Fold these 4 entries.
Entry 1:
Amino acid sequence: MKISVIGAGNVGALSAMRMAELKLGDIVLVDIAKGIACGKGLDLEDARQILKTNYNIKGSDDINIIKDSDVVVVTAGLARKPGMTREELLAKNASILKDVCLNIKKLSPNAVVVVVTNPLDLMTYLALKVTGFSKNKIIGMGVSLDASRFANLIAQELNLNVTDIVPVVIGAHGQGMIPLARHTKVKGESLEKILNKERIDSLLKRTVERGAEIVSYLGSGSAFFAPSAAVAEVVKAIVRDEKKTLGACAYLNGEYGIKEICIGVPVCLGNNGIEDIIELELSDSEKKDLLNSANSIQNLLRQLSF
Ligand code: NAI
């Protein structure tokens, strides 16, 4: 398996490291900024003797290195800078993604693409349209990270192991996310049966704000340890054909009553990428939240041209 990571910044380099250590395949790291991918590639190579593993990793400034990849992870893009509006960020990252996706189409026409760059749901849609790949081959990583954050906060609140929690988050990645308390299980029981509404609401709010909380501590840049773990989880499910159910941003064509956008829903992941979209039974208010989240994505999509 050849796995390429485009963008060797915080999320890209750490994703490459995690995937190499999990021995998911031969890893390629590429970045437009001169030297960064090469330097990080050499550094990661030097860790092999200490770790007693023989993974293969190569860094390059030349996008041609991604040729014939089985999986391509896209982390190339900018984070919002002071004074930059979301719309400006959207336009900037859309132009980077467009360029990157044309290269993926040309060099790795059979790859499964995992999009990470924000705004995630829009960039996933753009990747689908620009590559023209089938919808199962374009996956956005977003709500699985949100779900892991939700689980972490629930475990702390209940003083349990995080592994006792099976969290479910759907919707847009970011402010529009919908952590589903009713579908989230704590030792097999619905979270709604374990905590009262007030405590659940506080957990939901903290989950939605978790990314911004991390950014405010970091000062510049955004989270990368948990995001890279989430990337490796998605890629592992694909390359090992795990048929694993995970939350991911997928193109919907009528599922959940939603059409023509990419949004976070539970999916089954395997060698073919998204092998199935799982339709949860939603209450009226959960459905309404999901449609609102979908509408906010739809409104932003109108600002994109490609
Ligand atoms: P970063 O700034 O550390 O790295 C981005 C890298 O992309 C830079 O090294 C830059 O040189 C490179 N780049 C820019 N244009 C490129 C091009 N055309 N070709 C190749 N490389 C290019 O940023 P970080 O922290 O790694 O985040 C990357 C993206 O991932 C951001 O958009 C961020 O918002 C997003 N993100 C998404 C998450 C999710 O859950 N979906 C979680 C965390 C970050």
Entry 2:
Amino acid sequence: MPRSRPNKGWDVRIAVIPGDGVGVEVTAEAIKVVRAAAAVFGHSLDFEMLPWSADHYLATGVTIPSDGYNRLREFDAIFIGALGDPRVPDNRHARDILLGTRFELDLYVNYRPVRLLDERLCPLKGRTPADVNFVVFRENTEGLYVGIGGRFKPGTADEVAIQEEINTFKGVDRIVRHAFEFARATGRTRVCMADKSNAMVDGHALWQRVFRDVAARYPDLQARHLYIDALALLMVQDPSQFEVIVTNNLFGDIITDLGAALQGGLGVAASGNLHPGRTSMFEPVHGSAPPLAGKNIANPIGAILSAALMLDYLGRRDEARAVEAAVARAVSERQGTPDIGGSLGTHETGDYIASAVRKVEGDTWRNQKF
Ligand code: IPM
Ligand code: MN
């Protein structure tokens, strides 16, 4: 990532919110792997565990304490497992903890790389890792997620449900600029913006205008516009045409699940919620998966790769590369959970990757290109 939080030295403090369900299990493995990487490079990492979760909410009535967001700002980074529990049907705690942190810390960039690690994980015929390697920048602080709306005469035949979509110049401009900056800084040349301006003629006209104006300032980059439905089609037909995609909050949510499918499933997809230069939050794309919880079967790779994004963001690039290389090795050797063709449990996959991190020191990771 081109713009990281200012390097405050090698001692970093990370807030960890394991959350609910499999979030707890995959977080433990991500921490294990990150600790192994830090040890290899002689750096320290300090983790503070925060109990905010469905259990905590049900026991205390508190989703996130009133000073919670301010406490989070004191850390160098935040790592989240997953939130969501059938005992909290309105998902209130997830809204406060996950969406609340995105909004309160103004983490406007949802960075979701889509990278196929092994050909056999791709559900498309004949596609190789060279064909599936792009990043999605999802606007993360507005759109349909702002919670503005209401219900009139709920529960009756006259019910009216309104959910407003907010697009601001500031919000659209900063995410679109981030996409172009990222492309330029990482040697990518193609930036695609997806909206639905043929139907949402007001809200998405703003995306059109901003994209045109920003693109004009990057004449070295190829700017392309697609309607979101066409993008979904082309992501499946030929994902190799994409390098950087930028879109709004809801569309980004949807197409990153599609992207996760292209790279081997939700279990391997990673993400960062960023405000460049500020405390940012990292989480696997998957949810808490209640039916899988407590069985030692969830794939920890999405969490581990999210932790690698966190290390990268913190300026610890060698550690990040070492973790990514260890994951690539585990995948190619089928040392993982059944969804990636292995027969290991969550815990054993974490052990394998942690020991691979120790082995890759001074070995192949230096030449790995990610
Ligand atoms: C994600 C999730 C969240 C979202 C849910 C849990 C609210 O699906 O991070 O992609 O929609 O942003
Ligand atoms: Mn999602």
Entry 3:
Amino acid sequence: MLRGDLERELGRRVASAVGSAFGVAISPEEAVIRPAAPGHQADYQSNAAMPLARRLEVPSPEVAARIVEQLEMGDMLEPPRVEGPGFVNLVLRPDWLERHTTELASDDRLGVPLAAPPRRAVIDYSSPNVVKEMHAGHLRSTVIGDSISRLLRFRGHQVIPQNHLGDWGTPFGMLLEHMLDEGWDRAGQHAIADLNRFYQEARIKFDSDPAFAERARRRVAALQSGEPETVTLWRELVAESIRHFERVYELMGVPLTPADNRGESFYNPMLADVADELVARGLAVPSQGALCVFPPGFTGRGGEPLPLIVRYSSGGYGYAMTDLAAIRYRARDLRADDLLYVVGADQRLHLQMIFAVARIAGWLTTRAEHVSFGLILGADHKRIRSRSGDSIKLLELLEEAVDRAAAVVAERSELTEVERGRVARAVGIGAVKYADLSGDRDKDYVFDWDRMLAMDGNTAVYLQYANARVQSVIRKAGGPPAPGTAVMLPEPAERALSLKLAQFPTAIEATIEHLQPHRLCTYLYETAVAFSTFYERCPILAADTDALRASRLVLCELTSRVMVRGLDLLGIEAPERL
Ligand code: ARG
């Protein structure tokens, strides 16, 4: 059976035909294979001829004709044809697609090969700040990071999540001081629900009471130098917050655990050493009392070189320095092949500078990528806020999602009470995640309950419902078809569905290559649509022959497996009944 990306295989064949016909080497990507748009008599088209025509100074229809002559068809392809100015139309042979689908149905990886060799990816995601509650930006980082982790793991790569908690730095001076003023007991009772308010109270006191501000500053120093009472108190504060985060992850079904926590504080003992190394390499230089690196190519509006602050004039270290220590640790100690940072677009410059410095310092020799994302907007198209104007609280938002989904699910009476609770959670959380994942992550999107919970359109519940419908057909048939049942594809609608199912590995490849989960969403949506056309046009249980009935059940079963796996790779559950 052909494993992996069908488009790449076709690209390989076209590239090798180009090699034989013209003696020029092109890559499978340069063969420009695309699924043919409806209306063309083809499954795929190669668009290689036009650019080659320019390069070889041969008219493009002739280039295409010579590709067609040389193309290896094997048992996979019908004789190819040239269309228009030089498109090469490619059609899969029906018997090949039937065999391929039959084999796919008994392949537990659904045609997706394991990466050889696997890479080790260190992926920084979620990364909320202690004491402040998680907000919409952390939702995006958590959802996108979780999906990318799942995709990489499924592909056979090793994934090391790093939850870069904001658990260190100057805000802790005022927080700890405020805790002591109020008594930790009082804070303890309030901490989980009101961490945010606690933070705000401390902030107000810090801004309005100079004596408090001074105490807060001394408290930072005490924390950084490891003064025991301060450290104990800080630990409690952090632990309280981590319990809050765990509740959020649990509700979201995100398998981040305390073992994945590597907060900013983890790097504190390394900072002096990293600073020394930067000085020794001549990279860090004194600037206005502080210690800075000026990576080449980064300038401000007036063309002045931009600094990355290694050490403030006060002697303290900040966010940037912690990230330098973190990148050295991830590259050198964790031996990452790929360093991924799932962080909002507003930190682009910061991360680009970190990457640049880490490269000059020689720590970073492999891939580092900012997996950036845009904002979640409210109905007013501004950054989403709660009714009181604060930043939105993630836990409340998720609870509301489950409540709203429960109302949708309540209309369906065949479910038991227990099932309904589970389904409401799957639908509610799924809706929020899918709304986040289904658009290009770099873009902002508007948070809209009605749209994300709509039963039709490109939503999680549409996909969940499609899968439940497939499952119900299989139940009515008395269970899945016998293993090895042969697939036949007499009707165009079942052929189209089969082709979609054969494209699962292509969708996974593209999603991983660009780290863009929306590509997988689009694929799953198209698959659900292809299923629904198949379902309308091709009788399953009442098929003309037993063999056809069994074949159609194989398509049902395979569709469901693709949907369930695909949704799982997005971190979304697919209940059997809805
Ligand atoms: N805690 C940061 C924030 O909430 C995100 C950290 C991202 N990761 C990093 N290595 N800087 O904005």
Entry 4:
Amino acid sequence: MSSAASSLCCVTARAPAKVNLELMVGPRRSDGFHHLATVFQAIGLHDDVSVEPADEWGITVNGPYTDLVPADGTNLALRAARLLASEAGIDVPVHITIDKDIPVAAGLAGGSADAAGALLACDALWGVWSSKAAMEDLAAELGSDAPFALVGGTAMGSGRGDQLAPVLGRGRYHWVLALSDVGLSTPTVYAECDRLRSGLHVPAPAPSAPMMTALRSGDATLLGRALSNDLQPAALSLQPRLEEVLAVGLDNGALGGVVSGSGPTVAFLVSDTERGLDLAVALTASGAAPAVKRAVGPVRGAHLITAASGPRGSAGSTGRETGHGGPAGLRSS
Ligand code: ATP
């Protein structure tokens, strides 16, 4: 371990949620995953993941979703920390604290964000300072969306979504997220997608020209029209009330709306903050969405926000911010 590691007692990383602007689902692969072509955008809705040396491995989850997240060795953040420790030959257990604001099992990749945050925070705490490529490889072992949580911004994902390429995109987009009070399990949604498409020819997935044109132009109206998700019929089949959510959003000024990832969150694109506020009110007042969040995108990927040098909470932040690319952080609208 380097001297940098011994001087740190607590490190916090901030990691973003994502929405899928486009999700093309190809045939099932021999390993059980599907061939994907997707466009991710990181949005200003974050979890903060703090790590500090401890006598044994442990995890605490704070916030409204505590009951929905495992607080044991299956938690993706703890798995990430242990994976990095084993790769780097580190024998220093950590206690992880997640301040969770990303809804769980919502299609927003909250678990992947926590994995990315834990990798980055432990990497700094232990003074490993892995390369960007090495970190993305570890992230891919933890979840298909985890490499993107490190990279952030707007990016294209192929393979099972873990092979990333930058997208030439412009614009700052305002999102309204209609949340559900019942989550959807990702494997269940893929199984339903397979069921709905059984007997049909499923072509190899490829990014669409309208999506690429929209992102290059930075035109929110074009992007709203280009939003698409091959998992949407499956999510609607499993949660039919999402049809109403989509209808309310589109009737109340959204430029477009799409189920994010495996759902059940529906992401609506609006033209500005004011339209976002109006749409949030309409979704709540209609009873269509039990809860609504607003966020802007793209934002940067997981990055360090504190690296205290004294006992936790006593020394304050060094003010250092590092990250793995992506545009500078934009905050929720
Ligand atoms: P994705 O879009 O990447 O498929 P999701 O956003 O739909 O995922 P997550 O919030 O990542 O779903 O949670 C999926 C499941 O993972 C949860 O039901 C939970 O049991 C488990 N899980 C493990 N670790 C975490 C974590 N740190 N945060 C949230 N869920 C976790």
